[in-house]
Structure prediction request, 137 residues.
Amino acid sequence: MTDDMTRGVPDLPGGQWYDNDAGPLVRPYAMTGGRTHPGPCGVPFDLIALVTLDPGAPATDHVALGPEHRALIELCRTETQSVAELAADADLPVGVVRVLLGDLVELGSVTVSRPVPPAHLPDERILREVIDGLRAL
Prediction:
């Protein structure tokens, strides 16, 4: 190891963009093309929004998509996931995932839905009465 490497200065030209342990560093704005908000789709991408691969989606040329887009599509292929889960599994910042999901919604590759709010769920008392009634059968 050279003296430059021990001081954290890499030997190679352009090497300042690399971390020996983490690999190449890609800035978040590079993944989103400098955008910070999802497109004009108007879909709320809060952390608990559920993202599903649209089975009726038109065949999208996945080669034209960036690697991060393709990674999100692959993560949604197996099961519905929240925006927070996708960000964690893809190892990307949530803001980047929101922008990328906006692109995928506009392409028709994924759909986004909201979970049922607790206020709209049936009362626990009613559910217990139903369970007790089924047990009594």
